[in-house]
């Protein structure tokens, strides 16, 4: 499948992997928008948030659970951080394999952009 994040999962493209389990992979974003910017992806290919099915709900929860664990590990869980999931073109999605951005280490403004 011609999917960048599937290729990272399959180790066909290198990435700085920071966490992996049976269902999830997390790696540093190649173009970080914060001192820590990690992309968390399910190993299962799901193109957009609109394609999530009821059987995937636990997996989506695992993305957020992983984000919180990584925030704690990086030391900014208490001061705060941001998680973002972009959907389709107007939402800013550029890679069509769902992913959660975990960004921390600086202050974020809201609403953003
Ligand atoms: P999106 O815009 O789809 O929400 O997020 C895609 C993210 O993937 C972007 O933040 C972008 O910097 C990151 N990205 C794109 N290509 C690569 C790559 O080859 N390696 C890594 N580690 N991140 C990538
Ligand atoms: Zn994929």
UniProtKB/TrEMBL annotation:
<dbReference type="Pfam" id="PF01230">
    <property type="entry name" value="HIT"/>
</dbReference>
<dbReference type="InterPro" id="IPR019808">
    <property type="entry name" value="Histidine_triad_CS"/>
</dbReference>
<feature type="domain" description="HIT">
    <location>
        <begin position="4"/>
        <end position="113"/>
    </location>
</feature>
<dbReference type="InterPro" id="IPR001310">
    <property type="entry name" value="Histidine_triad_HIT"/>
</dbReference>
<feature type="short sequence motif" description="Histidine triad motif">
    <location>
        <begin position="97"/>
        <end position="101"/>
    </location>
</feature>
<feature type="active site" description="Tele-AMP-histidine intermediate">
    <location>
        <position position="99"/>
    </location>
</feature>
<protein>
    <submittedName>
        <fullName>Histidine triad (HIT) family protein</fullName>
    </submittedName>
</protein>
<dbReference type="InterPro" id="IPR036265">
    <property type="entry name" value="HIT-like_sf"/>
</dbReference>
<dbReference type="InterPro" id="IPR011146">
    <property type="entry name" value="HIT-like"/>
</dbReference>
<dbReference type="GO" id="GO:0003824">
    <property type="term" value="F:catalytic activity"/>
</dbReference>
């Amino acid at each position: 499948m011609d999917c960048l994040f599937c290729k990272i999962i399959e180790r066909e493209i290198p990435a700085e992997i920071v966490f992996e389990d049976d269902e999830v992979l997390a790696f540093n974003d190649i173009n970080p928008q914060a001192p820590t910017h990690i992309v968390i992806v399910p190993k299962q290919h799901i193109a957009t948030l609109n394609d999530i099915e009821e059987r995937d709900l636990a997996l989506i929860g695992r993305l957020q659970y992983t984000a919180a664990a990584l925030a704690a590990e990086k030391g900014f869980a208490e001061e705060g951080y941001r998680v973002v999931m972009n959907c389709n073109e107007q939402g800013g999605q550029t890679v069509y394999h769902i992913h959660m951005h975990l960004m921390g280490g600086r202050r974020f403004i809201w609403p953003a952009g």
